[in-house]
Design a protein that fits this description.
Strand content: 15-25%
Helix content: 40-55%
Radius of gyration: 20 Å
Order of helices and strands: EEEEEEEEEHEHHEHHHHHHH
Number of strands: 11
Strand order of the largest sheet: 2-9-4-7-10-11
Structural class: alpha+beta
CATH topology of the largest domain: Jelly Rolls
Length: 290
């Protein structure tokens, strides 16, 4: 199924929306919105869906979701408590322009700009950073006036300088550059994405990077942490995940659409990367997003 567009609630006096959720559920469908979103789960058990990733949801979970990245948080019905509020969370949604049209373009905001680019795949926050940001989110939820702006900027600054963040969705769901050599990597990524449904020849990809095959292999592994076949398979599986959840195409057709020449190889690669067969993934995702 396709995610639905959600209009973020915001009143006239606020530059961004901060919501404290207390109840029996998150009251949300599989959706997306132009705002970036930071969600701190204070109390909950269930599942979190971000892009093509399904993960267990538990207390303390902290995630930054990029603009227009489909997502939903779901409380597990069978684990609801008999009293009180089984769901407690703080959700902050903001546009890049929340502090002014050109504010993020000033030199001091460079790290935050890079953070927001990285959030295109969603970022899970762990380690000491999670504890620090969770405390700041608690204060932000009760802040007023200018203190709200400084509070959000403090959260973003902490996240921007942290090493405790890891991507959630696969590279294939939202393509992202992982190289400081952006022009060269941009050409490589553009070529791979354009030819993802066909045979991708290492020689041609190396030519796009203006490198010999050996130099390209070292260049690519250093900047992505993966070999070219590993990276291509992740992209293809990521595309397959999108097709599995957003339409009713036959799995065989999806395999061909994503560049796999036979169903057995597709099933094997999909299981290696996602952890379950394509059919089970579609069924599980649909059940969670319903």
């Amino acid at each position: 199924m396709k995610p639905v567009f959600e209009q973020t609630p915001r009143v006239q006096w606020e530059s961004f929306h901060c919501e404290v959720v207390r109840g029996t559920s998150y009251n949300a469908a599989w959706h997306f919105h132009p705002e970036f979103q930071i969600t701190l789960v204070i109390k909950s058990f269930g599942h979190r869906l971000v892009g093509d990733n399904i993960a267990p949801l538990q207390s303390g979970d902290l995630v930054l979701v990029g603009s227009n990245l489909p997502h939903v948080w779901q409380q597990e019905q069978t684990r609801r408590e008999h009293s009180g509020h089984p769901v407690q969370a703080i959700i902050v949604r903001f546009l890049e322009t929340f502090a002014g049209k050109d504010f993020l373009q000033i030199p001091e905001m460079d790290a935050v700009r890079q953070l927001l680019k990285r959030s295109a795949r969603g970022l899970q926050v762990a380690g000491p950073t999670r504890e620090i940001v969770a405390a700041k989110m608690q204060r932000l939820s009760i802040a007023r006036g200018l203190e709200r702006i400084s509070g959000l900027l403090s959260v973003l600054d902490t996240l921007a300088h942290s090493r405790d963040l890891r991507p959630i969705a696969s590279p294939g769901f939202v393509p992202v550059l992982e190289s400081s050599d952006q022009d060269r990597m941009q050409r490589v990524c553009d070529y791979i994405n354009t030819h993802l449904d066909a045979v991708i020849d290492r020689t041609q990809v190396a030519r796009e990077a203006h490198l010999s095959e050996g130099a390209f292999s070292r260049f690519f592994k250093l900047r992505t942490g993966k070999t070219l076949p590993q990276y291509v398979n992740e992209l293809r599986v990521g595309r397959a995940c999108r097709l599995l959840v957003e339409n009713e195409m036959k799995i065989t057709d999806i395999a061909l659409e994503c560049g796999f020449t036979n169903l057995a190889n597709f099933n094997r690669r999909f299981h290696e990367i996602v952890g379950l067969p394509p059919r089970d993934y579609r069924r599980q995702f649909q059940n969670r997003a319903a």
